[in-house]
Amino acid sequence: MIRMFHVRKVFGGNVALRDINLHVRKGEFAFITGPSGAGKTTLLRLIFGAERPSSGHILIDGINLGRISRKRLDLLRRKIGFVFQDFKLLPNKTVFQNVALSLEVMGERPAYVRKKTHQTLRSLGLEKKETLFPLQLSGGEQQRVAIARAIVRNPMLLLADEPTGNLDPDLTKEIMLLFRTIHMKGTTVVVATHSRELLDSTAQRKILLQYGQIIGDVQP
Amino acid sequence: MRHFVYFLRQAIANIKNNRLIHFIGLSTMAISILILGVFILLYVNVYGWIQRWGGSMNMSIYLEEGLGKKGLERIERFIKNQDCVLTYEHVSKEKAFEEFKEALGPQSKLLSNLATNPLPASFEVEIKADENQVIGLKELAKRIEKLDGVEEVQYSEAWIRRFKDVLGMVKVIGFVVGGLLALGALFVVTNTIKLTIYSRKDEIEILKLVGATDWFIKTPFLIEGMIQGILAALVALGGLYLAFVLFSAKKTTFLNLAAIKLEFIPWAFLAGIIVLSFIVGAIGSLIAVGRFFEVARS
């Protein structure tokens, strides 16, 4: 699913990532971990195509991101779900509208958008929150809405950047359970986190980053 | 179609959410169109007036005192034989006096103290004239003036020529001002849309993250610009029409001359202004989104 060959990313004079070689298989669940500033977010942004590598190649589902047109990149992103630490929900749209947005950009029929959005929100226990606005929800609920938005399109790949960074331990467990459920349905999941508790509680693959380099890859 | 409904809904929601920005933009644009409209209105009316007056020019041939019947017939024959003459009428001294009295209305008492009738007899001639005939008319006036029994010849050439000059000037000024105003309106739309884009920066970022194509994001802004263009044109032309109705209702008369009949801008021009405004709105928002996406990409 994800292949990275000698990827290097430089911001100004600072090297964020150096010589990254990585292979995440289809259907795999992997954690990317490391201290703050290790390059976890940059790595996810490169996989998502939000940043271009300074050198090296990235292949997502066989597509070379370095040679892809803007439009094809937009289309590829429709197969990738992204969950952010700060949720990135639109405050002036309801829970339902935030999630439906993911399908609307694909030009899906309104009836399908309604059905699929209701279904996804129900599966995440948010059916009673559909008409509320994000700021009327708790942190855990907001993160669930962000996950709903990421999975409503049944993505082949789900990326999550510190998805439990703002949540308490109980909510963290709840969110991780959701990721496992999504993974069980066949989605490849890559979660970036620096939470030691979270990593200790799972037996998934852990890719360790430090100073922009992979210093360890622990297979389950 | 499905997309269009979504885009239209988005565009209307954007306008609602940025009411103040749009109100300011729309008002500024409407004022520009209003000024342009005033120029067109002026042009249309002056042009119409010239067409009406220039199409049939008048010539007054004043006759000498005591001109005999033969002399009168000779002059009448000469007038009759001219190809460019549409109609002619002999106005006797008495008739001229009566007409003048009538025209003065309540002030006609002023004439009662006159011992003699000072007005000359004349031939009032209506001449078919086109733009190229002005010089010919001058020649004709000279020839008539040389006839025995003719005191003086007056015709409307100088007036027509002056108005034609004014019309030409209005046309040039209209083009220059219209061009500048269109540029101004373009600038206004560009900035209005730019402001609404910046107010939705976060939303655009999220749309990109969920895989929206550039055009999916751009189109509602383009529709927003087009709506602003059309609304500004409708507001401006509506205001202009209202002002026109109020102004043209105040007809004044002087010396029994009917006030100049005013005409509003013809439909073709109105449609042209709306289409122009629509295009300006579309181009303005296209520039705004183009610049924004260029900056966002770099």
Summary tags:
heterodimer; A: 220 residues; alpha/beta; six-stranded mixed beta sheet; 7 helices; globular; B: 298 residues; alpha+beta; four-stranded antiparallel beta sheet; 9 helices; 4 strands; 9% strand; elongated
| Percent of residues in β-strands of chain B | 5-15%
Distance between the termini of chain A: 18 Å
Strand content of chain A: 25-35%
Structural class of chain A: alpha/beta
By DSSP (H or I, 4+ residues per run), the number of helices of chain A equals: 7
Alpha-carbon Rg of chain B, integer: 31 Å
What share of residues of chain A is helical?
Answer: 25-40%
Q: Which blocks of ≥5 consecutive residues of chain B have pLDDT under 50? A: 254-258
Shape of chain B: elongated
Largest interface: A-B, 24 and 17 residues
**Gyration radius of chain A, rounded:** 17 Å
Q: What's the count of strands of chain A?
A: 10
Order of helices and strands of chain A: EEEHEEHEHHHEHEHEE
Order of helices and strands of chain B: HHEHEHEHEHHHH
| Mean pLDDT score of chain B | 81
**Spatial order of the strands forming the largest sheet of chain A:** 6-7-8-3-9-10
Describe the oligomeric state of these chains in a short phrase. Answer: heterodimer
Largest sheet of chain B: 4 strands, antiparallel
Structural class of chain B: alpha+beta
General shape of chain A: globular
Distance between the termini of chain B: 33 Å
